[in-house]
Design brief:
The complex is a heterodimer. By secondary structure, chain A is of the alpha+beta class. In chain A, 30% of the residues lie in helices and 30% in strands. Chain B has one domain: P-loop containing nucleotide triphosphate hydrolases (Rossmann fold, 3-Layer(aba) Sandwich). In chain B, the strands form two sheets. A seven-stranded parallel beta sheet of chain B has the order 5-4-6-3-7-8-9, with helices on both faces. The chains are: A alpha+beta, B alpha/beta.
Chain lengths: 116, 232
Amino acid sequence: MHELGIVFYIIRDVKKAAQENAVEHVSGVVMNIGEVSTVVPEYLQDCWRWAADKEELLKGCELKCNRVPAVSFCEDCRSEFGTVAHGKTCPCCGGENTYLLRGNEVEIKEIEVPNY
Amino acid sequence: MLTAITTMDEVKVIEIKKSVFANNDKDAANLRRELKGKGVYLLNLMSSPGSGKTTTLIQTLNRIKDKLRVAVMEADIDSNVDAVKIKEATGVPSVQLHTGGMCHLDAEMTRQGLDNVPLEGLDLVILENVGNLVCPAEFDTGACRNAMILSVPEGHDKPLKYPLMFSVCDLVLVNKIDVLPYFDFDLEKCREYVRMRNPKAQVIPICAKTGEGTDAFAAWLLQEVSAWKKEE
């Protein structure tokens, strides 16, 4: 149900972009979804199909999700490491002063429109 | 927002590169600024369904209503049982919001809710968010602070399972401590896991049914509101 709310946001932003570009039909929306964004791409796509087909602009429009790997940074030893594998603890020095560099994106990368 | 248009064979690609949450973050920051101007502190209270948000509020409101001018906004998918309960048990004005199926409140919905609350002369509005540990953590409501309730039957490992919720909260109320003897809930482990997610978060054990510990929550609220009013 989390994903449905996000789909409504995406639809709003895509409609706005379509209007700004005088686009009448959108055939694809490409998303960047971070590995630790708490958004499940498969659920997002299910919700998308349900909601997008109710919009004239988005009938049959495909939602494509690029997965962005989560990477954290250690302030103690200044190394980068995979967040999913190691959590908040740096695998190089065992330090806890770490923060997420990327991987929580829920971002509309681009939209695709038929080129007549 | 629009950065480039590239032409390919069959489709034209319009680059957007925009976070889905960007608009909400902006709306939330605006709302926070407006509330500051009005001197109204907004607390966003979150938890799982059934953790005791409404009962905790009833106990706490009865302890602060003579010291602060307070109102409550109840957000649920449907029904007005919570708003009615609050009004009957405390006399504090309460407004029921329906999210229309949505699992959380965003800043715009919070603003629409606040439009139904006479803010003039209020010190504090408590927003009881939809019961859910996932989605409400993602959406900034425009509140000054976030607090959450974790109840004993849910288990002390919740901060590990729902990291974002615990990292955005400044206060964690551990509710239903009267049933601690019947559950494998380790309060010290819970404190440790909360600290892992947010070293600054405070943990207050309470029992909303008997009122135990809600004095401490009431004191936290009074202190928070007065400190926030003095902030530049």
